[in-house]
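Supplementary notes for students who missed Thursday's class. We covered one full example, reproduced here. Read the sequence, then the structure, then the short commentary at the end.
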Amino acid sequence: MNPGVTEEVGSTARSLIDALKGQPFMLICGIINFAMLGLLFYIAHSVAGQRAHEVGLIYDNQKNIQDLIVRACIGGPNASRGMRLQSEESHPVDIDSLVQPLKKPLK
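Structure (token representation):
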């Protein structure tokens, strides 16, 4: 009859404990290593949550700034300051009249 999984795990654990009885420093090092792994996992998890929160705040701030710029510079979709696009005017601006002063030679 072959031994089961639990018997194998039990014998391995017993042999490990017997081996570490003679070297308590190695037992302490192993415990500290597992504690450090747990601590590093906890720190990484908390930092990732904080970073996700900060990235969300940055996106919200950029959206607010973009909305302010749209309302201040362009006038937004419901502009009440009377700003219009050039294509909405009945008489478009003549480009030549704007460029003529630039074509005059300097004295």
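Commentary. The CA atoms of residues 42 and 92 lie 65 Å apart. Residues 24-74 form the longest helix (51 residues). If anything here is unclear, bring it to office hours.
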